[in-house]
Amino acid sequence: MATAMDNNSDTHRHVESLYLKTDPTARPTVAIDGADQRKTIECLICPKLVAIGPTDESLSYSLQTHLLTDHKFMIADIDTIADLAKYCDHWRPKFAPTVDGHDWTRFCVAINTNSGPKDVAERETYYMIGGSAQEFPEDTRVREGLRQSMLDLILLQSQSERNDTEFSRQCIFCRKVFTENRANLFAHLAADHGLNVGNPDNIVHCRELLDVIDRRVTALQCLYCERTFKSWATMKEHMRKKGHRQLNPDNRDYDKFYLINYLSPERDWRDVKREVDVDVKPDGADDGCDADEESEQNEWNDWSESDPKDHHCICLFCEFAADIEPLKAHMKTVHDYDIDTVLIDRLEDFYNRIKVINYMRRTIHECRCHYCGQRATTRDSLLVHLEFSGHSKLLPDECDYDSPDNYFPTYENDNLLHFLDNTADEDNSAAVEATDG
Question: What residues does the C2H2-type domain cover (predicted)?
C-alpha cells in the first residue's frame, strides 16, 4: 500500500500504486520548426543523459523509467507535457543536490510505500511532481506555458501549410495530380474514394500524413484494422465491405497530424471522431473476398456517392441550411447579418474567424447573446433581442472568443468553417477583374 503525506499535517491519503505505463510509444515526439528537438534529455535530478530506449520507447518513457528506478521519483502525466526537455530545464536547478537538502516537498508530494499496518516490506519514500493545480501551482504554470508555446509554433506551421501554393501531389489511389492547395486533394479523397481523414484546416504535417497513408496502402494494409492482404483488389473490397475507409483511431502515430492534440491535453482527435462515428463492424476472420485482381488505376468511385446535403452550411441563427451563397443571402436578408462585412473584412486572421464562429455557435445554442451575454428563454426570443438591439451586426469582444476552446467546432462537420478563408477575398477579386475589364 502507498500513502501520500500532506505537507502541512500528519494526515495521509491513499494514492495509486507506482507504475510505468504499458504503452512506451504513447504521445510520439512531434517535429515542429522552432521547437526543441533534442534526442536526449538530461535528468532533472542527476547529470545523466537519457535517450530513446533500444526498443524505440518514447523519450518520456525512458526518462520516467530512469527517474523511478534511480531516484524514486516520477512526473505525473508526463505524456501530456508539450516540451519535456524545457520542462526539465526549468526544474533542474530546483532539484540540485545542494538545494534545501533534498527538501523536495515544496514542489512534490511524498509517497510512502508499505505504510499499511499489515505491510512487512521495508518502507520507502517516492516523490511525484505535478497532478494538482491547487497543490502545485508552479508546475501547472510551467506546463501551461510550454503548451501555449508549442501551440503558437504549430499554428504558425499550420498557417504556412494552408498558404502553401507549391503543393503538388498525386492521389494515393488514382493517377490524378492535385496542385496549389492541399484541400483539393483531401476533398478528392473524401468525395471519390470515400477516405475522410478530417478537415484540411485541422491537419498539420499534411505531407507526412499522406506519406504514412501511401506507405500503408502500398503495403496492401487496411488503414483501419491494419491487416495486410495479398492483392490490391482484396484489400479494396475488404475496406469497402467492412467500412474501414478511415484511419485507425487507436494508432497513436496519427496524433501529431491533428491540431486538437495540441489544443487540449485531455481531448484528442479520436475523442472528437468517436462523438460522430457510425458503428464500424469489428474485423473478424477472413472475409472470403475472392475478387479478381484489378488495375491500380481503379479510382474506387464505387466507394461512396456524395450527398449534396453533406456540403450544406447551417445558418448561425436558425436551422436553415444551404450552399454558401444562398446561406449568405439568407443570413443577410432574414437576420441582417452580412458575414463578409461583419466577420471577414474585420478579422484578417483566419483562426480568429474560426474562434468567432465557434463561439457564436455555442452562445446561440445556449440562447445567449454573443455580444452582451444576455440570456433568453427560447431561440425565438433571442432572435428578437438580436434584431432590435442590433447585436447581430457586432463582433463579440476578443476577450470572450479568444480562447483555445473555441478552436473546437461546436457542431461536427460545420461546413461554414470551410468558407472563412476566401469568401470575401474571392468576391473582391471578382470585382477587381470586372473593373479592370
Answer: 220-249
DSSP tag of 341: I
Which bin fits 68, alpha (ψ -120 to 50), beta or left (φ > 0)?
alpha
How many CA atoms are closer than 13 Å to the CA of 12, on its beta-carbon side? 13
Distances from the Cα of 393 to the Cα of 16, 346, 359, 389, 423, angstroms: 53, 12, 15, 9, 18
Phi, psi of 178 (to 5 degrees): -120, 135
The pTM score is 0.50
Which set of grid coordinates corresponds to residue 239?
Answer: 475496406
The answer to whether the beta carbons of residues 361 and 379 sit under 8 Å apart is: no
- State the cell numbers at 213: 497513408
pLDDT tens string 239-292? 888 888 888 888 878 888 888 777 765 555 555 555 444 334 444 444 444 444
Surface-to-core class of residue 90, CB atoms within 10 Å of its CB (0-12 exposed, 13-18 middle, 19+ buried): middle
What is the spatial distance between Cα 355 and Cα 367, in angstroms, rounded to a whole number? 18
Concatenating the DSSP letter of every residue in 143-160 gives: HHHHHHHHHHHHHHHHHH
Question: Of 126, 103, 122, 104, whose CA–CA distance to 114 is shortest?
Answer: 122
